Amino acid sequence: MLVDYRVRQREYLLAIGRALSAELSLHDVLRIILQATVDFISGRAGIVVLADPTDRTFHVATGYGFPRSVYTQFEGLLRRLPYDDEAEREIIQEIGVGVKRIAQSTNLGLTQVLPLPLLSGESLIGLIYVFQVGRYQFNPDAISLLQSFADQAAIAVKNARLYERLIAERNRLGAILEQSADGVMILDSHLRITVFNRALSVMTGWDAAATIGLAHDDVIRWKSLKTEMDLRVALANGWPLPNAAHLTVEGELRRRDEKVISLSITYAPMLDSRGRMSDIIANVRNLTRYREEQELQKTFVSVISHELKTPVSIIKGYAGTLKRYDANWPPEIQQEYLEVIEDEADRLTDLIDNLLEASRLQAGTFKLEMSELLLPGLVAAATRKFTTQTDKHQFQVRFPETFPLIKGDERRLTQVLNNLFSNAIKYSPEGGLIEIHGEVNDRYVTLSVRDSGIGIPEHQQHRIFQKFSRLDNALSRKTEGTGLGLFLSKAIIEAHGGQIWFENNANSPGTTFTFCLPMA
Ligand code: ADP
After folding, report:
1. Is 510 close to ligand 1, i.e. is its CB under 6 Å away?
2. Are 186 and 193 in contact (CB under 8 A)?
3. Lowest-confidence region among 337-346, 434-443, 459-468
4. What is the pLDDT of residue 53?
5. Is 511 in the pocket of ligand 1 (CB under 6 A)?
6. How far is the CA of 317 from the centre of ligand 1 (A)?
7. Is the CB of 452 under 6 A from ligand 1?
């Protein structure tokens, strides 16, 4: 009898050991342990109840021997008794009473219940309940064996939770790498790519999945280097030295589509416990925008110094001429020179205004001062001013008879009109008609300015609204301009909730700029 008992005990323990090491799901492991526990004492049914650390309630993890409907009753009972550290004992007792009542209400003839706690260190993480028919004498030996089954179950739960945490942590790290705004790449010790994040994929034009397993040099193809060496040369020169710093390589890189971008890559070696390099983590930064900004700064300085110098030297020249006390200038000449000085001073003011606007935009302190406006009135005032400045161009203004009020910033919208009109004049050097046409649409009004000038070549069209962009043509070099006008006009119109665009005229030379604004 005793031998028989021992043999059975061994068989069960072996079965549980096998289940634990077989990489089964937690649910399957618990079911095997529960079945072994119930069978071992010839019980009829059992359940495993686990405390869920996230919602602090007990749930039935698995059951054995009950019809399905009984589980809903168990779940209902457990929901009513949430976990509470202060009253652990009372709650466990209540759960025990409730579980027994539910078991007895089935027609399985269950009379007895044996609770086995699942402990992780000091804390209770769940319970196994085994149900019996009739009056069964639990001998202490059997109970201690059953408790050892329960301990195995507790270990399985603990491992499963650790594993879950590990996976969650790994996914979290993976997500961080993936979401990082910087490019991130991980290489193995043979310089093969094992991780390639989305930012890097966007930067380099390589599909991330396609890079995995490729050699570093197949993807990172430098056109030219700004630093002394690339990764391969550095490795050949003994990088990384013990406790040596990161390696930074900077230069022009060929993307997958052969376009060239400026990049900086910082390689950090990861060493194993024996100090050998196991992986390399590379942080990749796109410097193209930074370089463009640098270029822009340079353009800014040259444009501004040129644009400021011209009116200042004209003003100085004319003022100096007028000032000469030996000359006795006739009044018409004096008048003409003073007008030139006034015009140039106006130009300086416009230029400075534009610069201030641009820096307000950049600083985010650009605010509109709104009032109700009549666009035809603003157009009339602006054309009046320009008509006096040219005798080669004719302005033709057309508005429908009734034109609605719009809400807008008068000074800023005047600035937009001045810009479009002065461009229409500047970029039609032969002169001609400048047609200004107002229209009323659904909820928008539009205004178009059509010239018969040099037009805008297709390949340069995308640059028109960029800061400091002046098209590369003979006329741009001859005329004054900062390349700020259209950049600001676009910002102003968009701040009003409108849009601005342009088209080269279909069957005749020249360009038409149009903007729309919402009605008041
Ligand atoms: P600016 O006139 O001060 O150079 P803008 O921002 O107003 O700056 O215009 C940017 C560039 O767009 C100009 O340098 C010019 O090359 C081009 N452009 C603007 N308006 C016209 C136009 N009506 N016709 C042809 N080219 C134009």
Report:
1. no
2. yes
3. 459-468
4. 79
5. yes
6. 28
7. no
Query: What SS3 state is found at 236?
Result: helix
User: What residues does CATH 1.10.287.130 cover in the chain?
Assistant: 295-363
User: Ligand 1: which residue has its CA nearest to atom 11?
Assistant: 470
* CA 483 – ligand 1 centroid, Å: 7
285-344: pLDDT as tens digits: 999 888 877 877 777 777 777 778 888 999 999 999 998 888 788 889 899 999 989 988
Rounded to the nearest angstrom, the distance between the alpha carbon of 501 and the centre of ligand 1 is 13
Distance separating alpha carbons of residues 306 and 490, to the nearest angstrom: 24
CA dihedral 295, 300, 306, 308 (to 10 degrees): -170
- Taking the CA of residue 486 as reference, the ligand 1 atom at the shortest distance is 6
Q: Which residues contact 342 (CB under 8 A, 6 or more apart)?
A: none
Domain 371-518 has what CATH class?
Answer: alpha beta
Of the segments 41-50, 67-76, 210-219, 309-318, which one has the largest average pLDDT value? 210-219
Average pLDDT, the chain: 89
CATH 3.30.450.20 domain residues, the chain: 182-286
Pick from 170, 215, 179, 174: which is nearest to 200 by CA?
A: 179
What angle is formed at CA 71 by the lines to CA 29 and CA 49, rounded to 5 degrees?
Answer: 45
**Ligand 1 contact, 464 CB (< 6 A):** yes
Q: What is the pLDDT of residue 54?
A: 82
CB 30 within 8 A of CB 61: yes
Burial of 412: CB neighbours in 10 Å, binned 0-12, 13-18, 19+: buried
pTM score: 0.51
φ, ψ (nearest 5 deg) of residue 226: -95, -25
Ligand 1 center to 471 CA (angstroms): 7
Decide whether any atom of ligand 1 lies within 6 Å of the 451 Cβ: yes
> Atom of ligand 1 at shortest distance to CA of 469?
10
What's the whole-number mean pLDDT along residues 460-480? Answer: 75
d(CA 291, CA 299): 12
Q: Which fold would CATH assign to domain 295-363?
A: Helix Hairpins (1.10.287)
Q: Is 351 in the pocket of ligand 1 (CB under 6 A)?
A: no
- Fold (CATH) for 2-168: Beta-Lactamase (3.30.450)
- Which residue CA neighbors atom 20 of ligand 1 most closely? 423
Is there an atom of ligand 1 within 6 Å of 434 CB?
Answer: no
Which atom belonging to ligand 1 lies closest to the Cα atom of 451?
A: 23
Three-state secondary structure call for residue 186? strand
Q: Percentage of the chain surpassing pLDDT 90?
A: 52
Q: How far apart are the first and last CA of the chain?
A: 99
CB-ligand 1 contact for 468 (6 Å cutoff): no
Q: Is the CB of 461 under 6 A from ligand 1?
A: no
State how far the Cα of 396 lies from the Cα of 433, in Å rounded to an integer. Answer: 7
